[in-house]
Amino acid sequence: MNASSSETIADNPLLTPSTLPYGLPDFGAIGDEHVIPAFRTAFVDHDAEIAAIVDNPEAPTFANTLEALEKSGRLLDRVAGYFFNIAGTDATEERLAIEAAIAPELAAHMDGVRLNEGLWARIKKVAELYDESASASSGGAGPDARDADGGESAASEVPELDDEARRLLDKVVRDFRRAGADLDDAGKTRLKEINARLSELSTAFGENLLADTNDRAVVVTDEADLAGLSDAAKDNLARYARKAGRSDGWLIPLDLPSVQAILTDLESPDTRARVYAASIARGTGAGHDNRPVLLEEVRLRAEKARLLGYDTHADYVISDETAGNVAAAKKLITDLAPAAVANAEGEYKRVADLAAEETVGAGAGIDGADDAESVEGAGDVGAPDWPYWAERRRAEEFAVDGEKLKAYFQLDRVVRDGVFHAAKKLYGIDVVPREDLAGYAPGVTVWEVRDGGADGGAVAGTEAGADTGGGVGAESRDSGIGLLLTDFFSRPTKRGGAWMSSFVDQSHLLGTKPVVVNVLNIAEPAEGEPALLTLDEVTTLFHEFGHALHGLLSDVRYPRFSGTNVPRDFVEFPSQINENWALEPSILANYAFHVDTGEPIPDELVEAVKRARTAGEGFATAEYLAASALDLAWHSLSPEEAAAVTDVGEFEQKALEEYGLDVANLAPRYRSTYFNHIFAGGYSAGYYSYLWAEALDADGYGWFTDNGGATRTAGDHFRATILSRGGAIDFTEAYRTFRGRDKDIRPLLERRGLAGADVG
């Protein structure tokens, strides 16, 4: 800690390491008033650490430069880890104001580190030493090479690096170059301006979206407008209305995607239309209009890419992903689009036919009328109606009633006997509640994750004697892997969607073990009532815990490589692999029991569910590809092209037409004004990555099925080759090591009903 900040330590709990197990923040002691002073103290502290590296009179070495850099900024990481997690899950007005104030300061500070000429000079010197050493060892000079004075060459004195250390050196050099370290003074000045403004815009986009999403929540005053919903679902909407300050009626909150899940159940076409209209209008409201925000973001990203030597922002981003180049990402979309659209149009015809049959039949039964147009719901199936009729078709054709299915998926059982049970079976870990530890909000649960291996010892590769803190006991200290926080229920101040993030990253260099959080937005039931999940919510639970496993089972030396610090088109691979266990027979049999009768889910229902899941893959794939196309279209613009775009809607329409994804009655999964992933969430030019990773998942899951399924042997293999290695591996080689060969895309095509697609 820098001496200049010492006077504030006693009054600010963010400025001293937590004494709680695993470094869990002491949420009860930290107030919003502590955040900005802690950030500014952390900036000063980090600057002092960087100055110490730069001013070190000793010649640059891997230890005094690269490892010293990895050890720096720990206070800043602790403050940022706390605040941005809290701000995302409980975005009060005060926290939004803090975020808006600190975002540009943080951007400026990080630019100061990455553009520090003295630091960059030392990093380059270390890289040169090892390049020379590699050249000498490869034959440029023999192992007994000597310099001109007869002494040993400098290269021969360079300590050898293991694979992870060498990867760190290469990664840091690349990161600094991509951050602008080689720019001239004018370029650096402009880059700092761009980065500061982008941080403001990203924050503004997210804040606008949250506010407009809350403003557009659909108010219902007549219970008849909620026909089709269960009593429990209506009770949830009533409670949501009370939380939002309404004294009566119901309030339908909006989630991130264009198609709201509630549309599948609402019988009223008018209510469906209201919900859908509210959903696709988000980010356009007065005072919360994201159109000028995203246009400026796109222009600045294009300018930044050119400044750094890339043609477009997409070229800049994807050059550092496993896809390697924009052409590969675009090809994934264009290859799949024709088959996806054809399937979606076929699905639409089938649901429209069903709607016509049912509405005509209903019309004939009313006073002998045979005019379908006189019946509510008759006529064309529009975008708001497609999900409803698709669900009706699923129930009729596959005998799957989504509402009845929920009765088998009780949240507590899904978590403990499903998600955690699968992890135990595959990886030998135990997840146990820590009732002595408090989360950051009511309903947040803290769990300890322990290695339950046969020997009960430390996790392979961890340092012996590492203390987890908190007086947990010898057994827990020996086997403790880290902590998991779960925050499942929605609240008006929580950002939409589901995610995993970290409070503390694992690192042997720092002696830290992981503290991670899984966040969802499930409707909270009435007190004393069980929370029942849709199949999609069950899948999301398994998905997000897959990310958590990636963080929890990390076994790396350097924090830069910890857990999910991997390319975006690889980070979704472990999470999507974990989704498969939701319906794996031995896992399902352990958690899927009827909430009232206790009966296990019938085998025939499970089979029907599996068949039904492929029924809407045309729609699901097309809406996903459409969003990916918008992302790449925005970020494949040159600065001149970006400057010429003034109409967001017009640009979207042209982009969808160019990709062949302009499908009637089907909106992209996210339209630009509420596309949080790319304009506020770090996935710019990277939304394609979910499908890229799914190709790995579909093929990779085949390895599990070929090798015994959900077994400890299979899990240990996946843990050793993928989960534990984080970013400390070559990702293509890691997949090859795990799978035994390069990926095959055919399992993905089969899963999505696209087996006839012409994919190279």
Description:
The protein is mainly alpha-helical and 760 residues long. Among the domains are: 3-141 and 157-182, Neurolysin, domain 3, CATH 1.10.1370.40; 216-280, no CATH class; 411-561, Neurolysin, domain 3 (Orthogonal Bundle), CATH 1.10.1370. The chain has helices spanning 35-54, 62-71, 74-89, 93-114, 117-140, 163-178, 185-215, 231-243, 269-280, 291-307, 313-318, 326-364, 386-398, 402-406, 411-427, 474-479, 535-552, 568-579, 585-591, 603-613, 617-635, 639-644, 648-658, 676-679, 689-706, 712-721, 731-739, 746-751; strands at residues 218-220, 250-252, 429-433, 445-451, 480-489, 499-504, 515-522.
In short:
By secondary structure, the protein is mainly alpha-helical. Helices cover 52% and strands 6% of the residues. Among the domains are: 3-141 and 157-182, Orthogonal Bundle (Neurolysin, domain 3), CATH 1.10.1370; 216-280, no CATH class; 411-561, Neurolysin, domain 3 (Orthogonal Bundle).
Please specify the SSE layout and strand pairing:
Blueprint: H1 35-54, H2 62-71, H3 74-89, H4 93-114, H5 117-140, H6 163-178, H7 185-215, E1 218-220, H8 231-243, E2 250-252, H9 269-280, H10 291-307, H11 313-318, H12 326-364, H13 386-398, H14 402-406, H15 411-427, E3 429-433, E4 445-451, H16 474-479, E5 480-489, E6 499-504, E7 515-522, H17 535-552, H18 568-579, H19 585-591, H20 603-613, H21 617-635, H22 639-644, H23 648-658, H24 676-679, H25 689-706, H26 712-721, H27 731-739, H28 746-751
Parallel strand pairs: 5-7
Antiparallel strand pairs: 1-2, 3-4, 4-5, 6-7
